[in-house]
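Board notes, transcribed. Complex of a protein with iron/sulfur cluster.
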Amino acid sequence: MFVISTLATREPTEVDMDLLIERLRDAHPDAACALRHENPFQLLVATILSAQCTDERVNKVTPVLFARFPDAESMKAADPKEIEEIIRSTGFYHNKTKAIRGAAERIVAAYQGRVPARMEDLLTLPGVARKTANVVLGVGYHVADGIVVDTHVFRVSRRLGLTRAETPIQVEQDLMKIVPRPEWIEFAHLLIFHGRRVCAARSPQCGVCTVQDLCPSAPLFLNGKARNAKKAGKVRKAGKKPPKPRKPPKSRPTRKPKPARRPKRKVARAAARKKRGR
Ligand code: SF4
């Protein structure tokens, strides 16, 4: 049993991790990595492609990509234009091609064409950060070195009150403290499936959620307070920067007073004559 507090409620909450995992397991017995792959290299490439893209879309392009370039050696020698053409529909295809080819080059040069199975080595590959490395280690090698924190894990773990952290790295650190290590790999799959199917970003289905009684955010969503709190700026969306304060409207420059007009020469002379009494 862990006592934590949530961003939404700010109240201390008791979380029974065993019960939470059991309930999620019952609700999502099929929770697993959805990216199709046949070896750690293909998993690495598919995970790089899944950035800002659905797994479904990635699974449509990878069969073509892997039929053409099945391993690091062939991917390293590939024409970037050809890779770009195949993966174009996953978005950011220029950067993704660079990362895939860069990773393949390093895997061939430093690891004899085999994807390394250690976090510190994986993090040296271009385009690979902790999330991708955790996917490769957990799914590809069944090594629990950390917990995958993608957009779903980030959102759902905060709503469940498991963390109040503001960055994926911090969320991972918090989860690693409270989730038993043997559950790390499965726990991420469970939260990803729960986030996709039930605890959606815009409209969480708290009414039918299997962990509603364990979730401190449920009452807020069920009676609409979460939305009002967000409107009032009390609950900031995960990962979003606070809005910039508005600049005060520019005041108009004040006009300079016009200099007094000089009397015309003729008028001035007449005035002078009058003064002299002529
Ligand atoms: S109760 Fe609602 S907010 Fe909590 S996990 Fe379930 S769907 Fe998400």
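Residues 156, 159-160, 198-199, 204-206, 209, 211-212, 215, 217-218, 221 surround iron/sulfur cluster (CB under 6 Å). Residues 231-242 have pLDDT under 50 and may be disordered.
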